[in-house]
Design goal:
single chain; 6 strands; 138 residues; six-stranded mixed beta sheet; alpha+beta
Length: 138
C-alpha cells in the first residue's frame, strides 16, 4: 500500500473512475453532455504536467484503488485568497481522506491558505444536484 504521484500509466484508471462516478451518482441525473472517457483521459493527462495541479494515487498490490486531484487557484471573490480546489477524488473513505490530507500539505507548502472540496448531498433530485463545499484553512 502506497501513495504516489500519478503517471501516464494511471490515466485510464482515473478517467474510468471519474466517468463511473458520474454514471453512478446523482450527477448522471443532471448532466446531459458528460465528457467521454477519452476526454476525461485527456484532461487527467493534462493535469500531470500542469504545475498548479497535483494528482496522487493510492496503490494496493499494484492496483490503483484511490486518487485525489487538485488544482491551485485563488478564491473568486475578494480578498482572492490562494486556494486549492479538488476536481476529483475517489476511494474508500480512509484512503480518500489520506490522499486529501497529502494534497493539502502540498498546497500549504506553496502558500495556499484555503482548500475546498465538494460532495453531493442527499437533497439532490432529478432536476438539481446539491453539492456541499467543505472549506479548510491550511
Amino acid at each position: 500500500m502506497s501513495i504516489r504521484l500519478a503517471t501516464t500509466d494511471d490515466t485510464s484508471v482515473i478517467a474510468d473512475a471519474l466517468y463511473d462516478y458520474v454514471e453512478q451518482s446523482r450527477w448522471s441525473l443532471v448532466y446531459t453532455h458528460w465528457p467521454t472517457r477519452k476526454v476525461l483521459k485527456e484532461f487527467v493527462t493534462q493535469q500531470l504536467t500542469n504545475p498548479r495541479s497535483l494528482l496522487l494515487v493510492y496503490e494496493h498490490e499494484g492496483i490503483v484503488t484511490g486518487f485525489c486531484g487538485v488544482t491551485l487557484s485563488q478564491f473568486y471573490t475578494p480578498p482572492f485568497i490562494k486556494t486549492m480546489f479538488e476536481w476529483g477524488w475517489y476511494g474508500e473513505p480512509k484512503v480518500a481522506a489520506s490522499l486529501w490530507r497529502q494534497c493539502c500539505d502540498w498546497a500549504k507548502e506553496r502558500g495556499v491558505e484555503l482548500a475546498g472540496r465538494g460532495s453531493i448531498t442527499e437533497n439532490s433530485t432529478h432536476e438539481k444536484v446539491v453539492e456541499q463545499m467543505t472549506w479548510r484553512r491550511l
